[in-house]
Design goal:
The complex is a heterodimer of chains A (381) and B (417). Chain A is α/β, with parallel strands linked by helices and 381 residues long. Chain A has two domains: 4-11 and 255-380, Aspartate Aminotransferase, domain 1 (Alpha-Beta Complex), CATH 3.90.1150.10; 16-250, Aspartate Aminotransferase, domain 2 (3-Layer(aba) Sandwich), CATH 3.40.640. Chain A contains twelve helices and twelve strands. In chain A, the strands form three sheets. Chain A has a seven-stranded mixed beta sheet, sandwiched between helices. Chain A has a three-stranded antiparallel beta sheet with strand order 9-10-12. A two-stranded parallel ribbon of chain A has the order 1-11. In chain A, strand 3 (90-94), helix 4 and strand 4 form a beta-alpha-beta unit. In chain A, helix 1 (16-26) packs antiparallel against helix 8, helix 3 runs parallel beside helix 4 and helix 8 (238-274) crosses helix 12. The radius of gyration of chain A is 21 Å and the shape is globular. Chain B has 417 residues and is an alpha/beta fold. Helix content of chain B is 36%, strand content 12%. Chain B has a seven-stranded mixed beta sheet, sandwiched between helices. In chain B, strand 5, helix 6 (176-185) and strand 6 form a beta-alpha-beta unit. In chain B, helix 1 (32-38) runs antiparallel to helix 7. The longest helix of chain B is centred in the middle third of the chain and has 36 residues, at 259-294. Chain B is globular and about 75 Å long. The chains are: A alpha/beta (381), B alpha/beta (417). At the A-B interface, helix 1, helix 2, helix 3, helix 4 and helix 8 of A face helix 1, helix 2, helix 3, helix 4 and helix 7 of B.
Chain lengths: 381, 417
C-alpha cells in the first residue's frame, strides 16, 4: 500500500509492539479465562493486567473498566442500560453525536423515554443554556461526546457534567476520539460513564470499554455466562484485550508528542488551505490536534476524496460509518452549515507516521485536483 | 509472516505446569493456518471495512466479504444471511431479544430447554422480566428433547423457540430438523445455538427449517471475540437490532467490524468444511479409546446419550469421589467440571441436574472434550492418570468403603453433628 494514510479518526494501523504482545494469545496461549486450569488462569491474569493498563491511561480504577467488543456496543450499553432503569424520563444528547449514541437513544422512545437533542452553535460547541433549560424536565441521562470525530471539536465536559449532576441526572461521554489525543481523566471529567475504543489508538479492532462509576445502576446489554461481573456476558476476546491494554500504555506515553506532531502538521495543512479558498469548519474553537474538516466551494467532498485517493492520499468525506451515504454530515447541518457547503466536506486526520513532506505534497495535489475539477465543471456548465 | 508456524504441541505435561489440553469445548487453540491468515489484517491491511473512500477500506471490506462466504458455505446459507457479531453470546442475545421483540404482537410466550447455555437462559429470563412468559422444558435423562413434550408446550401465543444443536456440557445432538418442522407447522420462530456444532455436525440451512442460528469462532479453532448470526431470508425473518449506530450489517448490528477476527473465522470455517469428516473419524476413535479405558474403572456413568452425541465429548461421573478433590487431583490434564462459564461457582452443573443426576454425581463429573491436536498418547496418559487418581481418592472415601461392603447408602440414616 503506497497510499499516504490520512484517515486516523476512522481507524489506525496496529503498533508493532501491540502485535507482539497479542501474538501468543492468537497462537499457543488459548485458554478460556473462566476455566480454572492453568490455560484459563493465565488468560485471566493477562486480561486483568490489560484492565489496569486501560484504567491508568484514562485516570480510572481498574474495577471501573468493563470490556466490550466495540465502542458502538459500549455506547449502546451506556445509553440503554442506564435509561432502562428510569423508564419515562427523558434522555438528552447533543445534536452532533455519532449515531451509535443517537440511535439507541431513539430506540428507547418505545419505553416511554423521550429523546431530545441539545443544539450546538455555529462552531459546534454545545448550547449550554439550552441544556440547562431542557434539564428542568426530569432526565435520566445526558450524553455528550468529548471530541467530535468529524470536526474535532472538544466540549467542556466537566462543566456540562456538573450541570447534569445538579439536575439529578447521570452523564455519559463518548471519549473514543479523545483517548490518546487529549489528556483524559475519568475522575476530572466528572462523568458517570465514558466510552473508549482500541482501534483508534493503534490497538486492534475488537476491543473497547465502558468506564463506569460503580454506583450507577445499569442493565446489561448482553446476558449470559456472567463475565465482567455480570455486566457483559460472553467469552472474553483475550488477544484483543491484551492488545488494547498495551495500546493504552503506549498512547499515554506518546500523547504529548502525538499532539505536538499532528498539530504542527494540521497547522501547516490549514495554512496551505487558506490560499485555496477553503472553509475550515470549527477552526475558531478548541479541536483535536490532528483533525481538519474543510470544504471547497462548489466541489463535492466525495469527488475530491476519490480524486485524492487516485493520487495516493487516503482521506474521508466525514465519518467512516456513513462513508457510503450521500447525505451531508449531520454534524455540519447541526452547526447551521448549508447542505450545499456540507456536501463539500473532506476530513483529513493526521497520525504519528505522517510527515511535513507529505503535507506539502498533499497541498500540491489538492491544488491541482481542485483546479482540474473546477475546469471540468466549467466545461460541463 | 512466513508459513512456518509450529503446530502447538503439548509436551512435558508435568502436573499442572503443562497439562494436556482436553477442554476443547471451553475454547480451542487458534489453528496456525488461521493465525497466519489473520496477521496481515492486523498489520498491513488495517483499514476500517466501512471506509468506502480508499483502498485501505476496500481491502478490508473484500476480506470481510470473502470470510462471510466461507461461513455461509459451511452451513448452507446465503452470505447475505450472515450477520457478524462479537461471539455466540451476542448472537444468542440478538436472535432471542431481536425476534421476540419484533414479533411480540404475535405473542409473548417463549419455549426453551433447561439445558441451554446461560447465554440463552439468561436472555430468556431477561425477557420474562420485561413481560414475556417462558417454558423451560426438561430433557429426557439422556439429554435429548422429547418431541411430543415439545409439541405439547406450544401455545397459540408462542412466538419463539430456542433449542441448541449440540450441548456444550454433554455433547448431545438434538433433532433440529424434527423440532424445526414442529415449529413451522405452528408458526413459531425457531432459533438454534450452534456454537458447539460447527465443524462437528453437518449443517445445511437450505434443508433445516431454522430461522436463526448462532455461531462462534473460538469453538472451531478460530479466534475469540467473533461470531455470527444466521438470519433467514426465505421466508424472511426480521429482528430488532440490539446495537444501533452506523447501520452496519444491513442495520442489524452496528459497530466497526474487526477485520482480522472475521478473516480468522472465515478461514477456521473453511478448514472445518474441508476437513470435518476425516477429522471427526479420527476424533471418534480417540474418544472411544478414552471411553473404553475409563470404563474399566468401577462405578463410572456417562452423562448424556452416547449415540446422538458429537465425537469430541465425553462427560463422565465418577461415583464415590468428592468433586472438588477430583478436579484438584487431575492437574496433569486441563478439563472442566461444569461449563466454563459457570465454573467459578461451586454449584453442581445445572445441565447434569436437569438429566436427573444427583448432586453428588453431578459434582463428581468431568467433561473431557478432545480436538484437532489431541493424540493417542494424550488419551493413554489420561486413562492411566484417572485410574490412579480415582483409585487413591476412593481409598480415602468412607462412602466407597461402605459401597464395597455392600451397604445400600441410600438407605443409611445419617446423624447430624
Amino acid at each position: 500500500m503506497t497510499s499516504v494514510y490520512l484517515d486516523h479518526n476512522a481507524t489506525t494501523s496496529l503498533d508493532s509492539r501491540v502485535l507482539e504482545v497479542m501474538l501468543p494469545w492468537l497462537r499457543e496461549q488459548s485458554g478460556n479465562p473462566t476455566s480454572r486450569h492453568i490455560f484459563g488462569r493465565s488468560a485471566r491474569t493477562a486480561i486483568e493486567h490489560a484492565r489496569t493498563q486501560v484504567a491508568e491511561a484514562c485516570g480510572a480504577y481498574a474495577s471501573q473498566v468493563i470490556f466490550t467488543a466495540t465502542g458502538t456496543e459500549a455506547n449502546n450499553f451506556a445509553v440503554k442500560g442506564i435509561a432502562a432503569n428510569q423508564a419515562g424520563l427523558q434522555i438528552l444528547h447533543s445534536a452532533i453525536e455519532h449515531p451509535c449514541v443517537s440511535r439507541p437513544a431513539q430506540s428507547l422512545q418505545q419505553l416511554g423515554c423521550k429523546g431530545h437533542q441539545v443544539a450546538v452553535d455555529q462552531h459546534g460547541k454545545l448550547d449550554v443554556a439550552q441544556l440547562e433549560s431542557l434539564l428542568d424536565v426530569p432526565t435520566s441521562l445526558v450524553s455528550v461526546m468529548l471530541a467530535n470525530n468529524e470536526t474535532g471539536v472538544i466540549q467542556d465536559i466537566a462543566t456540562i457534567a456538573e450541570m447534569t449532576r445538579q439536575a439529578g441526572a447521570l452523564m455519559h461521554t463518548d471519549a473514543v476520539q479523545g483517548l490518546g489525543k487529549l489528556p483524559l481523566n475519568f475522575i476530572d471529567l466528572n462523568v458517570h460513564a465514558m466510552t473508549i475504543s482500541s482501534h483508534k489508538i493503534h490497538g486492534p479492532q475488537g476491543a473497547a470499554a465502558l468506564v463506569l462509576d460503580k454506583r450507577v445502576d445499569i442493565q446489561p446489554l448482553l446476558h449470559g455466562g456472567g463475565q465482567e461481573r455480570g455486566l457483559r456476558s460472553g467469552t472474553e476476546n483475550v488477544a484483543a484485550i491484551v492488545g488494547f491494554g498495551m495500546a493504552c500504555e503506549l498512547a499515554m506515553a506518546n500523547r504529548q508528542d502525538f499532539a505536538k506532531h499532528t498539530q504542527a502538521l494540521r497547522d501547516q495543512f490549514e495554512h496551505g488551505l487558506k490560499s485555496l479558498n477553503a472553509t475550515i469548519f470549527s477552526s475558531q474553537v478548541a479541536r483535536l490536534p490532528n483533525t481538519s474538516f474543510f470544504a471547497i466551494k462548489d466541489i463535492e467532498g466525495e469527488t475530491l476524496v476519490i480524486a485524492l485517493d487516485r493520487k495516493g492520499f487516503a482521506v474521508a468525506s466525514g465519518s467512516a460509518c456513513s462513508s457510503d451515504s450521500t447525505e451531508p454530515s449531520h454534524v455540519l447541518l447541526a452547526m447551521g452549515v448549508t447542505p450545499d457547503l456540507a456536501r463539500g466536506a473532506v476530513r483529513v486526520s493526521f497520525g504519528t507516521q505522517n510527515t511535513a513532506a507529505q503535507v506539502t505534497s498533499l497541498l500540491d495535489v489538492l491544488k491541482n485536483e481542485i483546479l482540474r475539477l473546477k475546469q471540468l465543471t466549467s466545461i460541463a456548465a | 509472516m512466513s508459513a512456518s508456524i509450529e503446530m502447538p504441541v503439548l509436551k512435558d505435561h508435568d502436573e499442572g505446569l503443562h497439562p494436556i489440553y482436553l477442554d476443547y469445548s471451553a475454547t480451542t487453540p487458534v489453528d496456525p493456518r488461521v493465525a497466519a491468515k489473520m496477521i496481515p489484517y492486523l498489520t498491513e491491511h488495517f483499514g476500517n471495512p466501512a471506509s468506502r473512500s480508499h483502498p485501505y477500506g476496500w481491502t478490508a471490506e473484500k476480506a470481510v466479504e470473502n470470510a462471510r462466504e466461507e461461513v455461509a458455505k459451511l452451513v448452507g446459507a446465503d452470505p447475505r444471511e450472515i450477520v457478524w457479531t462479537s461471539g455466540a453470546t451476542e448472537s444468542n442475545n440478538l436472535a432471542i431479544k431481536g425476534a421476540a421483540n419484533f414479533y411480540s404482537a404475535k405473542g409473548k410466550h417463549i419455549i426453551t430447554v433447561a439445558t441451554e447455555h446461560k447465554a440463552v437462559i439468561d436472555t430468556v429470563r431477561e425477557l420474562e422480566r420485561q413481560g414475556f412468559e417462558a417454558t423451560y422444558l426438561q430433557p429426557e435423562p439422556n439429554g435429548l428433547l422429547d418431541l411430543e413434550k415439545f409439541k405439547a408446550a406450544i401455545r397459540p401465543d408462542t412466538v419463539l423457540a430456542s433449542v441448541m444443536f449440540v450441548n456444550n456440557e454433554i455433547g448431545v445432538i438434538q433433532d433440529i430438523e424434527a423440532i424445526g418442522n414442529i415449529c413451522r407447522a405452528n408458526n413459531v420462530i425457531f432459533h438454534v445455538d450452534a456454537a458447539q456444532a460447527t465443524g462437528k455436525v453437518h449443517i445445511d440451512l437450505e434443508k433445516l427449517p431454522v430461522d436463526l442460528m448462532s455461531f462462534s469462532a473460538h469453538k472451531t479453532y478460530g479466534p475469540k471475540g467473533i461470531g455470527a448470526l444466521y438470519v433467514r431470508r426465505k421466508p424472511r425473518i426480521r429482528i430488532e437490532a440490539q446495537m444501533h449506530g452506523g447501520g452496519h450489517e444491513r442495520g442489524m448490528r452496528s459497530g466497526t467490524l474487526p477485520t482480522h477476527q472475521i478473516v480468522g473465522m472465515g478461514e477456521a470455517f473453511r478448514i472445518a468444511r474441508e476437513e470435518m469428516d476425516v477429522e471427526n473419524a479420527r476424533i471418534r476413535r480417540l474418544r472411544d479409546r478414552l471411553l473404553h479405558g475409563l470404563q474399566t474403572i468401577e462405578e463410572v456413568y456417562v452423562n448424556g446419550d452416547l449415540e446422538h452425541r458429537v465425537p469430541h465429548n465425553l462427560n463422565i461421573s465418577f461415583n464415590y469421589v468428592e468433586g472438588e478433590s477430583l478436579i484438584m487431583a487431575v492437574k496433569g490434564i486441563a478439563v472442566s467440571s461444569g461449563s466454563a462459564c459457570t465454573s467459578a461457582s461451586l454449584e453442581p452443573s445445572y445441565v447434569l441436574r436437569a438429566l436427573g443426576r444427583s448432586d453428588e454425581l453431578a459434582h463428581s463429573s468431568i467433561r473431557f472434550s478432545i480436538g484437532r491436536f489431541t493424540t493417542e498418547e494424550d488419551v493413554d496418559y489420561t486413562i492411566a492418570l484417572m485410574k490412579s487418581k480415582i483409585g487413591k481418592l476412593r481409598e480415602l472415601s468412607p462412602l466407597w468403603e461402605m459401597f464395597k461392603e455392600g451397604v445400600d447408602i441410600s438407605k443409611v440414616q445419617w446423624a447430624a453433628h
